[in-house]
Design a protein that fits this description.
Elements (H helix, E strand, L loop, with lengths): L3 E3 L2 H8 L3 E5 H5 L5 E7 L5 H12 L5 H12 L8 E6 L3 E6 L2 E6 L11 H12 L3 E7 L2 E9 L6 H10 L3 E5 L4 H11 L3 E3 L4 H15 L2 E5 L5 H6 L2 E5 L5 H6 L2 E3 L6 H35 L6 H20 L4
The chain binds adenosine-5'-diphosphate (ADP) and magnesium ion (MG).
């Protein structure tokens, strides 16, 4: 009814004992509809040309950042080319070529072999402090420009984080984005435990570390790059409509409507379910013990009464379980 899909009862039970909730940033804590904000051409090309080559290379990538770049080009009615030798590197960016020129688009680590001038790095810091993600564009081993991308944080994010904290749950942010951008976004959402610059396998390590330190971890993510961490966490939660198939396939719980307010709801539903199950077990055993005892002390209950008492308690247990529907 609320758009939360549990792939089995055990996950309802697991989610009730969660001590840490770890959010992915892009597409999970943020709306996943990032926009290109700044286009900064550095070498002798125009801003439009920079956008054209970047968008052409990104046409085949599924990443929200890639979609933002392609959309920015479409809005300006720029016609795109089909790239060759395209290769997506999860958590880093893409490689590809156009007319024999090799392009690399992505985060700084993709361009390790390329020298970047100090003034450009200062510009990068400045953009990142505004919570923007900076994408580097290189052609044949030369930096030709920067694109900044901004994603708006989901309007409910702060409220959800506060609610989780009030339930005594730790909240963390795991992102492949840079430290500065991660911290800026974390601050907006009220999350102070931020793990940045994580490759997909490092997200798994971060989940394991949180688990050994605090206890059960629920990881919430949307991307292909989150799937290993979703699998490693005690409970994996995937975004439904904005999420990738891999994330949904791997997760234990799916938020069908992408509403993160359903995270505290799922946890408290799990807790209530556990409580009702325990009450029911205690009640059912108590009824049986009473009937047996009454039978032995002078046969106070006869057979028909025993049957009615036993089956009656089953009906009461079912009714008690149905309380959860309220
Ligand atoms: P998050 O963990 O925040 O969801 P990802 O792990 O998906 O982020 O990506 C980490 C970083 O890698 C992005 O911030 C971006 O800089 C870079 N990146 C990933 N894919 C692409 C792409 N297709 N084009 C450009 N940059 C990319
Ligand atoms: Mg993501």
């Amino acid at each position: 009814r609320k758009g939360v899909l549990f792939k089995g009862g055990v996950h309802l039970e697991n989610v009730s004992g969660v001590k840490v909730v770890a959010f992915d940033k892009t597409g999970t804590l943020t709306s996943g509809k990032p926009k290109v904000m700044d286009i900064i051409a550095l070498k002798n090309i125009t801003d439009l040309e920079l956008l054209r080559v970047s968008a052409s290379i990104e046409t085949l990538s599924q990443h929200p950042i890639a979609k933002a770049i392609v959309q920015a080009a479409n809005e300006k009615n720029i016609s795109l080319e089909r790239p060759k030798e395209l290769q997506a590197i999860h958590g880093l960016g893409v490689h590809g070529s156009l007319k024999g020129i090799a392009y690399k688009i992505g985060k700084l680590e993709m361009l390790k072999d390329i020298a970047i001038e100090k003034e450009h790095l200062q510009k990068v810091d400045e953009l990142e402090e505004q919570g923007k993600t900076v994408i580097f564009v290189a052609a044949n081993g030369q930096l030709i420009g920067l694109l900044s991308i901004q994603d708006t944080i989901r309007p409910q994010a702060k409220k959800v984080v506060d609610e989780l904290k009030a339930m005594g749950i730790k909240v963390a942010l795991l992102t492949g984005d840079s430290e500065t951008t991660g911290k800026a976004v974390g601050k907006q959402a009220g999350i102070d435990e931020v793990y940045a610059e994580l490759l997909p396998e490092q997200k798994v390590e971060a989940v394991k570390k949180l688990e050994s330190r605090y206890g059960k971890v629920a990881m919430i993510g949307d991307g292909v790059n989150d799937a290993p961490a979703l699998a490693a966490a005690s409970v994996g939660i995937a975004m439904g409509s904005g999420g990738t198939d891999v994330a949904m396939e791997t997760a234990d719980i799916i938020l069908m409507a992408d509403n993160i307010e359903n995270i505290p709801f799922a946890i408290s539903l799990g807790k209530r379910t556990n409580r009702v199950v325990k009450q029911n077990v205690v009640f059912a055993i108590a009824v049986v013990l009473t009937l047996v005892t009454l039978n032995f002390i002078g046969g106070v209950v006869n057979l028909p009464e025993g049957v009615v008492g036993h089956e009656g308690s089953t009906v009461l247990v079912i009714l008690s379980g149905l309380r959860l529907l309220r």
